[in-house]
């Protein structure tokens, strides 16, 4: 079995590409370090990662962020590790697919931001309504996304998975170990 068939392993770097419902490229992250892959999930880290927007604008992420993607949930989670605590940016999005080129998903506009003090905000509702009509998301997609918002809020409220400080600490520590190991070689 080739490495591509198995997928990326711990310490490998992948590209992440988000698309819009119409198939247009939305945003690309280069060189996300893979921390763990399983049958249904991928955990990685972005740290000073180059991001390219659909209009060609480029920027670099400012702080380390643990990223969580799942093959069955319609969201992905970015845990940004900042001096004042962990902030979360959660994209309502299709489950990811992974091929030789990149980890890919469709971004469905709605986002949930969680601040270090626990405050939650649902963002971009107007954008979601506009794109939903323009690209004809349809009632089934709308139902799935709204159900996944509820699942996501439940995870946040119960500090499940990526919303647990122990989870963030574990994966950030693993990232630092992998960095040290690569610097020692």
Automatic annotation (TrEMBL):
Q: What is this protein called?
A: DUF402 domain-containing protein
Give every DUF402 domain span. Answer: 22-159
Domain of life of the native organism: Bacteria
Q: Which Gene3D superfamilies match?
A: FomD-like
> Is the Signal keyword given for this protein?
no
Note the InterPro entries from the entry.
Answer: DUF402, FomD-like_sf, Ntdp-like, SA1684
Q: Does the keyword Acyltransferase apply?
A: no
Please give the organism. Levilactobacillus fujinensis
Pfam families the record matches: DUF402
* UniProt keyword list: Hydrolase, Magnesium, Metal-binding
């Amino acid at each position: 079995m080739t490495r591509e068939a198995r997928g990326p392993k711990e310490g490998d770097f992948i590209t992440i590409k988000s698309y819009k419902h119409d198939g247009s490229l939305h945003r690309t992250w280069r060189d996300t370090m893979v921390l763990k892959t399983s049958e249904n999930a991928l955990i990685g880290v972005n740290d000073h990662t180059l991001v390219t927007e659909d209009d060609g604008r480029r920027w670099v992420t400012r702080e380390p962020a643990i990223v969580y993607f799942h093959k069955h949930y319609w969201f992905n989670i970015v845990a940004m590790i900042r001096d004042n605590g962990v902030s979360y940016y959660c994209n309502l999005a299709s489950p990811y697919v992974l091929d030789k080129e990149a980890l890919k998903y469709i971004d469905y506009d709605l986002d949930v931001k969680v601040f270090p003090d626990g405050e939650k905000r649902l963002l971009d509702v107007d954008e979601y309504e506009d794109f939903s009509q323009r690209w004809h998301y349809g009632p089934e997609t709308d139902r799935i996304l709204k159900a996944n918002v509820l699942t996501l809020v439940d995870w946040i409220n119960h500090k499940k998975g990526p919303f647990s400080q122990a989870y963030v600490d574990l994966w950030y520590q693993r990232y630092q170990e992998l960095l040290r190991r690569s610097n020692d070689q």
